[in-house]
Amino acid sequence: MALTVHLSCLLVLSVAGLAQGIKDSLRVQNPGPRPLELKEAFTLFQIQYNRSYSNPAEYARRLDIFAQNLARAQRLQEEDLGTAEFGVTAFSDLTEEEFDQLYGNQRAAGRAPNMDRKVGSDEREESVPATCDWRKANVISPVKNQKSCSCCWAMAAAGNIEAQWGIKTGQPVEVSVQELLDCGRCGDGCRGGFVWDAFITVLNNSGLASEEDYPFQGAVRHKCQAKKHQKVAWIQDFIMLSDNEQRIARYLATEGPITVTINKKLLQGYTHGVIRATETTCNPDYVDHVVLLVGFGKTKSPEGRQAKDASSRPHRHSTPYWILKNSWGPAWGEKGYFRLHRGSNACGITKYPITARVALPAKKPHQVSCPP
C-alpha cells in the first residue's frame, strides 16, 4: 500500500510539469524526440498499473497515446468550469476508442421503456438538506471493479437495491451482480445492458442471492444459477424520477440512492474534484455509463478557473455537487467515487434517474420476456 501511494505521488509530481509542454509539442508537425521526463513518467505509470508491452513498436505506440492523453488532460483542465483535476489514470495508455470499447455501454444510450416519470410536488415546497451522503449510513457496499466486463448497469442496479434494502429494513446486504449477468432476460451478460433489465431480472427471479453465495466472476459466462441460492433482497417495482435536479435531490435525501446514466467521456482522465462540464465537452444527450447516485453537497472553492476579477483573485462561493459511485475499483477517482456539478444537468445526469422500490416478494411474480 505504501509503495502504491509513493508511486502515485511520484507520478503526480513528474507529470505536473509535463502536460503543458507535451500539449505544445503535439501542435508541432515534427515534435522531435520525446523528453526524458515523459519516458520516466511513463515508466512510473507502467509500474503503478502493472503494464507491459509485447514489443518495442507497441511500447512506442503506447508512449505516444500516453503523451496525447496528458495533453488532453491539460486541455480538459483548462476547459472545465468546476474544480476537477485531470491527469494520469489506469486508462492513460488507451485511445478514446479503446476506452469506449472496454468500458462503454452502448446499449445504455438506447431508449428507456415506456415509463412515466414520477412527478413530485412543487419544488418551492420541497425542503432539501444542504448535504446528504448515504455512505455514512452503512448501506453502501464496497466499490467493485467491472474490469473487462461491460456491466456498469448491473453493478449500479445491485448497489441501488442494496442501499434501498438497507434503508428500508435496517439490514445491510450485498447482492449478486453475477446473477444479474447470468440470468438476464435478454442474455447479454458482459456485453452491456439497461438498468431496467436488471430490475426486471430481479422481479422474474423473485429476488436476488447474496454476493457471497453467487460471487462476481466478470466475463466468465455461466448458466443461470438463481434457483440454487437463497434470496436475500426483493423489489416490488422500479420507477423513473423527474428530470428536475431539485426533485432528484429531494428523493435521494428522503428515500435513498438511485441509478443514473451519464456521458462518461470525461472520466477517462479524471482524478478528483467536481466536474462542471459544458455541453461541448460532455454532451448530455449521449449517455453511455450507469452509476449510483449516493449523495450531494457543496464545497467552498473557486467556481471556475476563469472566474477572476481585475486583481486576479478567484470569486469564492459554494459549488454544489453530486456524489456518484463508479464501478472501476477503489483506486480510481476519489476512492472509486466522483463528483459532478449539481444544477447544470452535467453529462446528462437527469436523463434516466431510476430506482427500484424494495419489498418482500409477491406470491406470483409477473414474468417479463425479452422483446423480439
Describe what you observe in this structure:
The protein is an alpha+beta fold and 372 residues long. Helix content is 30%, strand content 17%. The protein contains nine helices and 13 strands. The strands form four sheets. Strands 3, 7, 9, 10, 11 and 12 form a six-stranded mixed beta sheet that branches. The chain has a three-stranded mixed beta sheet with strand order 2-6-13, with helices on both faces. The model is unreliable at 25-33 and 303-315 (pLDDT under 50).
Tell me briefly what this model is.
By secondary structure, the protein is α+β, with helices and mostly antiparallel strands. The protein contains 9 helices and 13 strands. Strands 3, 7, 9, 10, 11 and 12 form a 6-stranded mixed sheet that branches.
Search tags:
372 residues; Cathepsin B, Chain A; six-stranded mixed beta sheet; three-stranded mixed beta sheet; globular; glycoprotein; signal
